[in-house]
Amino acid sequence: MNTEIFKQAGAVSLQNNQVKNNFNEIFYARKQALSKIFVGNDRNTNHFKEIATIKGVNFLDDSQSTKPNMTWYSLTGINQSVIWIAGGNMLQQSLYSLQQVAKEKVRILINIGNSDLIRPFEGIVKTIISVENIYQAVEIAYNYASAGEAVLYSPACGNNNETKQNSRDYFLAINAI
After folding, report:
1. What CATH code is assigned to 49-175?
2. CB of 109 within 8 A of CB of 99?
3. Contact 91, 68 (CB under 8 A)
């Protein structure tokens, strides 16, 4: 009996198993990387935290959404008309990827501070209002909101260091209504 045939078959089998293992490791790593890109790896308890419902209007805090793809995820998860409060000190990425979802979901965009944020939405969102701070934004959102709508604070820009303070300020502004 020729044992060389068994040695060759074993080597081929070993190589196939190594290729399969390498492929699975690369595929899993790619899947994890894409998940971090599209969903974000810095989500915490603020994702869709409902702060209050006042006169049938849901006030949602998603202050952790400091990237456009995280805001996209937030907007697509809401099944009602949205008044979107956005903005912050830093605009690092293009917001053009949010145009379609804004056209479908956002009735009013309230921009805090950063005027670069509104350019992608001119002609897409009918009403765009610029304010200086979160307190003004919440007051305007409250005055314009109708029962059955959601007011979403999802900055789409900024940095993670700002998010805790912004979340607290949003909460305080809602409680001041």
Report:
1. 3.90.190.20
2. no
3. no
